[in-house]
Structure formats: C-alpha cells, structure tokens
Amino acid sequence: MTGYIVKRIVVAFLTLLLIMCITFLLMNAVPGSPFLTEKSTPEMIARANAKYGLDKPLYVQLFNYIKSYLQGDLGTSLKMQEGTSVSRIIFHQGKFTLSLKLGVYALLLAVIIGIPLGCIAAYNRGKWIDGFLRVMTTVGVAVPTFVLATLLLVTFAVKLQWLPTLSGSLPDAKSYVMPVISLSFYYTCYVAKLTRTSMLDAINQDYIRTARAKGVKTRALILKHALRNSLIPVITYLGPVMAGIITGSFVVESTFSVPGLGKYYVQSVLNRDYPVIMATTVVLSALVIVMNLVVDIAYKIVDPRITLTEKED
Amino acid sequence: MDGKFAKISPFQIDPDKIPALTAEDFAPAGESEKASMVQMHKSISYWRDAWRRFRSNTVSMVALAVFLLCLLFAFVGPSLIPYSYAEQYRASQKLAPFAYSKGEETIRSLEGSCDGFYATALQPGSITALSKGDYYISDRGSTYAFSLTKAVEKSVLILNSKAEEPLILVKETDLQPDGSYKAYEPIAFTESPAEGAARLKLVRSVFPHVFGTDSAGRDIMARTMYGTRVSIIIGVVAALIVLIIGSIYGAISGLAGGAVDFVMMRIVELIYSVPEVLIVLLLQVVLKDPLQQWFDTSPSAFAHAMSDLGAGIVSIFITFALLYWVTMARIVRGQVLQLKKQEYVTAATALGASSGRIIRRHLLPNCVGQLVITTCLQIPSAIFLESFLSFLGLGVSAPMASLGSLCSDALETITLYPYRLVFPGIILTVVVLTLNLVGDGLRDALDPRLKK
C-alpha cells in the first residue's frame, strides 16, 4: 500500500512536470508578446522582456519556472495585474476559494442527491418512479451545462426574480443555488444512473438473497448490504467528476458572473499572461491529479479485494 | 385386454397406427425432399443479426428516427427555406418566431393577387454588384432587369402574370391596404440577362421566420439548421480522427506487447491524467494564428479546404487528434490482447489459417462492435466539447455558426429574447440525447455479452 502510494505520488509529479512543459511550449508557440499593445515600441517590449526574463533561451525559462515552482514561488503577473504575485492572485483574492467552494458543493450535491435517487430507482425497478428517474437522468446527461445554466437564469432570476441574476462572489446562500445546481446537474444524473445499475447488480447477488432469507429488513438490506457494494463504480467515477466540474465551472462562472479561477483562466489565456496561465494550469491540474489519487486510495478502502498493483491487461 | 392396460405407453408403438408401407416408401429421396431436410434458415450475418437485435429495441429505434429527422433538418432543411445562414435582412431584425417585418406584412396581405413577391433587397445600397442603376432578378427560368434611376426608399417588386408587363416596381408607401397599387413605368428586359442572373441571387419571397431573427436580421432557423450541420460534422469527423489514431495506436500496442506496449501505455496514462480542458483552451488560442497564416500562405488544396472550415474548427480537430484518442487506444488494446489469446484463434492457427485470415475472420469482426460503439458515443462528446468551446467564444467564428456559438450569441440578449437560446439548446440536447441512446442500442446489439 505505502509503496503504491509513493509510486503514485511520483507519477503525479511527473504528470505535473509534463503539464508544465506542454503548457510552456504552447504558450511560447503563440506569436506575439504579452507586452504587445498599440502604444508599445520595440524598445519597450525588449525592456519588459528583459525585466521578466523572457529574453532568455526557452529551456532556461522553462528551467526557471520549474525551479521557482519547486520553491513554492508561482511568479508574478505580467499583464492582468502587473507586478502582483500570482499566488496572491489565485489564493488571496478569493478566486481559488470561490471555484473550490462551487466545485465542492456541486460534488456534494451530486453525491447526496444522485446516490439516493439511484437507490430509489433500483429498489422500485420497473415501477413508474424508476421510469421517471430513468428518463430524467438520460435527458439530464444530454443537456449541456450552459443551456441549463442560462435557462435557470432566465426562469428564476429574470422572470420570477426569486434569485439574483449576478451571483458575484457568492455573498449569500441564495446566490449559490443556480451555479451549484447547474454545475452538478449532469453529475447528479450520471451518479444516479451509475448507482442504479450497480445497485441492480448487487441486489441480484447471493449474499443479498441470504440476508433476505435471514430476515434482514428491506431498509437495512439496501443501506447496509447492497449500497456498500454498489458504491465502487460510483467512487471510481468521482475522479473524472472533479475534472468535469472544473470544465463546467468555466461556463458557470461566466454565465453567473462569478469571479472565480475558471473565468480568470480563460481571461489569462486570452491575455497571454504567461505566469498566470502556467500557475492556473498547474493548480487546477494538481487538484484533478490529487483528486484521482484520493479516489484510487478510497477505492482500496471500500473494496479490499482490489489489489493496487498493475493489472495484467 | 384389461381396460387398465388398454392405454399404450408413450414408448410403445400402436401396431394399428403404423401406416402400411409400400414399395414407394423405399424409393431414393428426390432433390426436393433432400432440400426440405436441409436447414430451413439461411445463416444470418453478424450485421443482420445486430440489426435484428437493434430493431427490437424500441427506445433506440425511436432515437434513431429522431436523429435521422435532425439530419434531415440539418442537411436538407436549408434547401427548403429561402433564407441563408449568413444573409442579413436589414428590415427584419429582432423578429419573434413567426413574426413579420412591416414590409413582409404588406406583401403577405397582397398574397392573393400576385404570383411572387420580392422585397427588402431592393433597398438602395443593398444591391451593389452591378453597374449603377441596373438590377436583375431571376425567377422561374427567365431573368428580369430593371432600372432605378432615382433611389426609392423602400420598394416592393411584384411579379404579376396577369398584367401585360409581368414585373412592376412599386414603392412600399404606394401599396394600399386593399392590395391595389400605383404602378410605375414598365420594366424593360436587359440585353445580357445571363450575366444578371449569375450575379444576383433570387430575392426572397415571404416565408415565416419560424424561429425568429437575430439582431443582425439573420433568420435563426436557417442559422440553427446550418449550426446543427456544422456541429454534427465536427462530431463525426472528430470521432473518426479518434477512431483512426486510437485504433492504430491501441492495435500496435496490443499486438507488439512487451517493452513497446509498456512504454506506449505509460504515454497513454500520462495523457489520460492531463486535465484536457485546460490544454484544449490553450490550444484553441495557440493554434488560431499559425493556422490562419498557413491558410493564407500555403498553396495546397488541403490548406484551401481547411481554410473553408476556419481556424476554430480545425484546431478542434487537432485537439481531438492530440488528446482524445487515449480512451479508444485503451479499448482497442484491451480487445486485441483478449482476442489474441482466444481458443478459436489458436484453433484457427492450428488448422493452418494465415494470419491475414485470422485478422479478417476472427480479430476484426470481434473488435468492430466495440469500435462502432465507442465511435458512436464519441460523437456526442465531441459535439459537447465544440459547443463548450464556442460558448466560451473560441471554436467557430461568425458568420459561421454551430449550436454552441448560437447559444453563446443568444446569451447576450437572453433577458429579452429567451427563445433564441431555446431552439438551438433543444436541438443540441436532442442530438446528443439521441446519439447517446443509439450508442446504447448499438452496444446491446453489437456486443450481446455486455447486455445485462
């Protein structure tokens, strides 16, 4: 187990390193410079390049990035908030917290609503409630996040005026409702679908029949015996969910005007603010990679049968 | 005999019921009799069998039918309506569904008395392709030409077959509510009608704007049709790219095995753990300028074809080619590894089948189901990604449209014109939903082992 975790952490670091290299290459493949504006002269650009070390050879720049990242220094913004340290922009201006809050709430909602829905559908298999939930979840995974977000916005904020149009930096509980729902809807449906399938698998197993024969009450049967065993595919899915929620947060943040990291990332790419792009990519990737790692280890705890070594094929 | 034993056991033959045998019964069987003994069914091919299973799946069949309707909407629809996705009708901006602009309303009220209607494009300045003062209109095989020496603010052309001169130019202000109008001087035919016809598109007749028009006066239904086409094409091409790269990579890795397999799979794992969306966004921005430059400078036909698609779409394809093939590669590798070890492959080898025959008869047919399923399910995810990018303002650029960019355009005016989002949004959902359902049906039909 320890050996496996160590190995996975090493691989995670390698992946992050690879991501840094890819991002660096991509950033530098764009013609033009972050300092290029209508007013700038070649001398000004050259001076700015020298100031931020952009005149050095590419491999030196890349090496400097890696070195400073290992020291915990994410560099300083070149353009969007010139001179401010990037770690300050990401962590101290509330951007990361906002995105993280949205993501965590969405994830929780997906799990808290999705799993019971799946259980209800599986338990009432073939009845109308199962049919209804199946239609809902099938349609749910086909609705793009931005369509749902915008429809919610029009219905509840513009027409009914129950909820605020601009969520801003999420000052109150009301402003969370729409972003979190639109972010988590797809995953709620997917989790419900997954739970239903694996629950049905579990219900048909011998040990359930044994438990039923023993006289275990239905409720305890579902919660204690069936659910535990049907959670494995759901847990496996949570890694990709985290990555997907980050994707969704780009859309949700721009629809509801939440000044989070997702929105900032898109802006930094469009502005070619190299250190910000690099730092945001690394931070978000690290989040996804860590999440995947946690999921894999949780996997092992839930199902001790799984060996955490390389599979045969 | 005792009544108790009168009943003959099923294993005994009732001697009374044995038919009398004649010499004919011992004659050799004829051709027809032989044929009747041979199995009555033709053997069913893999695809026929799969189709039979697919057909019995009601949900998938309905989904397939709806998807085919979407295809008709996207590919046949544009030729049925007189509007194009890029043309801007200045007088008919911001119309609600089935609403008409003032000019269109006037012409509609005249509908009983005239054969054809031409409007708005006759606004001065809107036809500039020809020499000053000459206008050409092509209709039903003949070309009409007329002159406007004075600028008429808003004019309507009325084609009336009952009148001596079929084409009459009327000022919109001269149209009476009851449909009568004061005609101007008759219009003479041009000497070179062919030239006129070639340069001028037929001016539209009055057709309802089923989905309304946008702020630039473009018909939203025409744009939605076009956008659906673009989205579906992007989805299919991206899925094919993934299919080709993924299956080749996976097959090589699976067949080669050993160190090659190890290294190739570590690469797949690395790419797999990269959060694609971040890189995709970056790629979209990075690729735009170099692609545009390549379009402008390269003389090759390929570059020309690509430039028609636009940098946004091409960079989506490149993104798929770089990042999204890993799942396919994993699936194909898994299949190849599994099939390589199957007994029937060993048996075929033992019977002396060549490796070509083994690949054709045993590996490929067993793999193709998985390939079809994965490719089919890849299409909606590609459509999703494209719409996501277009929504963020990357992806396709105006006047080109995709379902995502239409939704994104609609967002700007969402509070005033919510229906602009609803139509493309619904179609996007329906396309993705039906493709998902068809994919599920295919999975059940092509790979019965997976069926629960």
Structure explained in plain terms:
The complex is a heterodimer of chains A (313) and B (452). Chain A is mainly α and 313 residues long. Chain A has helices at 2-29, 42-51, 58-70, 86-92, 95-123, 128-140, 145-159, 173-203, 206-214, 218-255, 261-271, 274-302. Chain A is built from 12 helices and no strands. Helices cover 55% and strands 6% of the residues of chain B. Chain B is built from 16 helices and 5 strands. Chain B has helices at 31-37, 46-55, 58-75, 77-80, 102-109, 193-199, 220-256, 258-273, 276-297, 301-309, 311-323, 326-340, 343-350, 355-391, 403-412, 419-446, and strands at residues 116-118, 134-139, 142-147, 155-159, 167-171. In chain B, β4 and β5 (167-171) form a beta hairpin. In chain B, α7 runs antiparallel to α14, α14 (355-391) runs antiparallel to α16 (419-446) and α15 packs antiparallel against α16. Chain B is flat and about 105 Å long. Chains A and B meet through α1, α7, α8, α10 and α11 of A and α8, α9, α12, α14 and α15 of B.
Question: How does the SSE layout of this entry go?
Answer:
The complex is a heterodimer of chains A (313) and B (452).
Chain A: H1 2-29, H2 42-51, H3 58-70, H4 86-92, H5 95-123, H6 128-140, H7 145-159, H8 173-203, H9 206-214, H10 218-255, H11 261-271, H12 274-302
Chain B: H1 31-37, H2 46-55, H3 58-75, H4 77-80, H5 102-109, E1 116-118, E2 134-139, E3 142-147, E4 155-159, E5 167-171, H6 193-199, H7 220-256, H8 258-273, H9 276-297, H10 301-309, H11 311-323, H12 326-340, H13 343-350, H14 355-391, H15 403-412, H16 419-446
Antiparallel strand pairs in B: 1-4, 2-3, 4-5
Helix pairs in contact in B: 2-16, 3-7, 3-16, 7-8, 7-11, 7-12, 7-14, 7-15, 7-16, 8-12, 9-10, 9-11, 12-14, 13-14, 14-15, 14-16, 15-16
